[in-house]
Write a structure and sequence with these properties.
The complex is a heterodimer of chains A (290) and B (180). Chain A contains nine helices and four strands; from the N terminus they run H-H-E-H-E-E-E-H-H-H-H-H-H. With 290 residues, chain A is of the alpha+beta class. Chain A has one domain. A four-stranded mixed sheet of chain A has the order 1-2-4-3, sandwiched between helices. The mean pLDDT of chain A is 76. Chain B is mainly alpha-helical. In chain B, 81% of the residues lie in helices and 0% in strands. The termini of chain B are far apart. The interface between A and B is medium-sized, with 15 and 19 residues.
């Protein structure tokens, strides 16, 4: 069942974010345990800094990402079929039509960005327009619309704040090591665990962020199938995207998780470090729906 | 004294529950109305496009065209959903056949005007199908919501009645695929 799949994915995302929050709290706890003096001021500044950065990127993310990836508006005159397809899918999803952009490259890819359904952008490559038929394109557009509907951009913004925050805490920890007085008597085992955790924390934080991103891909796939009532379209589109050999150039690594499939065509299989689940797994999950 | 607090707490909880249910029902009702107006818009859009199709196919396949033009120009004046749905499906079939007939003429097929019209018209057909799908899903949610307890009490007071589906033919989407 589609709905069951959607619910499972939502639970997973909540679980991972909870894990994230617990993890951040633990980091703060260990930090204050090891270096009690002045830690709260440092944490406060770290928090303020990351919130400001997050707010700025939250309100400007779409324009920033579009210019990073060299996208231009897809007018109705030039891309009639694409615009008509998007309008149709928006009706099916019950969402307003997002702005539509095109990237001039032969690589096959697409992404969505924006902060909410009223300020959303969908961008596809010109290669995708050439190579996909109408039903495959509808599947891709529905996948991107699902990201918008699910506020995935918000989820990833939250994830990015947390990663930034954890990194700052870890940074403070390693710096303040130099200034630490060694005369206080604290539990040595707890000290070692705390230090290890703080040093390794940025890696853990990134892994959690990637896990969220992979889960959201599965969720968007399932919803795309529900919106179009035609999972074959998306399955065939994913196959074409997977088999295509053209690499994307001029893509900023930071925007990788936004794309429908990883633009970097690395062939490693569903590793801990990938932003996207392996395409074969995604197709398998789609085929299991219903 | 304690009993008064308990009673106040119960009344508050009830009040919050009523507000939540009320808002939920109103939201669902509005969604159905919006979904319906979306279908209505697309049906109107199709009727605006049809004269262009008739115009552009003038002079081609005259005997076939004549019957199709009659089907396509049908328009019933009714508020009965199933009748509108039935008529809409007939017009759909007519439009698709007319497009298919036109496709067999190479010079017409190469005509830029016809190409754009074809995209717009098949797009409108898709939009009608999707709008219908969204409407029926919304109606299903609404009908379920006003039937379950305790929503049904509030629904009765608000005089919300279960809504009719815009009837869908099961293999509609597949048919579109064949005709393209």
């Amino acid at each position: 069942m589609i709905l069951k799949e959607v619910r499972k994915n939502k639970t997973k995302t909540i679980f991972i974010i909870t894990l994230f929050v617990i993890f951040v709290s633990l980091c703060v706890y260990f930090l204050s345990y090891i270096f009690f003096k002045d830690v709260f001021i440092a944490v406060f500044f770290g928090l303020v800094f990351s919130i400001i950065t997050a707010l700025v990127s939250y309100y400007n993310s779409d324009q920033m990402i579009l210019s990073i990836n060299n996208a231009r508006p897809a007018t109705r005159e030039e891309f009639l079929q694409l615009n008509v397809s998007l309008e149709a899918i928006c009706i099916a999803a019950g969402l307003p039509k997002p702005k539509l952009y095109v990237m001039d490259t032969d690589a096959l890819n697409a992404f969505a960005t924006g902060r909410n359904p009223d300020h959303a952008v969908i961008c596809v490559t010109s290669g995708l327009i050439k190579k996909l038929d109408k039903y495959e394109m509808e599947g891709v557009l529905a996948h991107e619309l699902s990201h918008i509907k699910n506020y995935d951009i918000l989820v990833s913004t939250v994830a990015i704040i947390m990663v930034g925050f954890v990194s700052i805490i870890a940074d403070i920890a390693s710096r303040s090591l130099y200034f630490k007085n060694s005369d206080d008597n604290k539990n040595p085992i707890l000290l070692v665990i705390g230090l290890l955790m703080l040093i390794l924390s940025p890696i853990f934080a990134n892994l959690l962020k990637l896990a969220v991103s992979r889960n959201r891909e599965y969720l968007a796939d399932a919803q795309a199938a529900e919106i179009t009532r035609n999972k074959e379209g998306l399955i065939n589109a994913l196959k074409k995207i997977d088999e295509d050999e053209v690499q994307m150039t001029n893509i900023n690594k930071a925007t990788e998780s936004l794309f429908i499939a990883s633009p970097f065509k690395n062939k490693e299989r569903d590793s801990l470090f990938s932003t996207h689940p392996n395409t074969k797994n995604r197709i398998k999950k789609l085929e299991n729906i219903k | 004294m304690n009993i008064i607090y308990i009673i106040i707490a119960i009344i508050l909880i009830l009040l919050i529950a009523i507000i939540l249910i009320y808002n939920h029902l109103v939201t669902l009702n509005n969604r159905c109305n919006n979904a319906w107006s979306q279908i209505d818009n697309q049906l109107k859009r199709r009727y605006d496009l049809i004269p262009n199709l008739i115009e552009v196919t003038k002079g081609y396949a005259n005997h076939e065209r004549q019957t199709l033009v009659e089907t396509v120009n049908k328009r019933v004046q009714t508020n009965n959903l199933s009748e509108i749905a039935k008529e809409s499906e007939e017009v759909s079939k007519g439009v698709k056949k007319l497009l298919a007939v036109a496709e067999s003429y190479p010079d017409l097929k190469a005509n830029e005007l016809f190409k754009n019209l074809q995209i717009e018209l098949t797009g409108t057909e898709d939009k009608i199908a999707f709008a219908r799908q969204f409407y029926n899903d919304s109606v299903q949610d609404f009908n379920t919501a006003i039937e379950i307890f305790p929503n049904n009490i509030l629904a009765n007071i608000l005089n919300y009645k279960s809504k009719n589906y815009f009837k869908v033919k099961e293999n509609e989407r597949n048919q579109v695929k064949i005709n393209l």
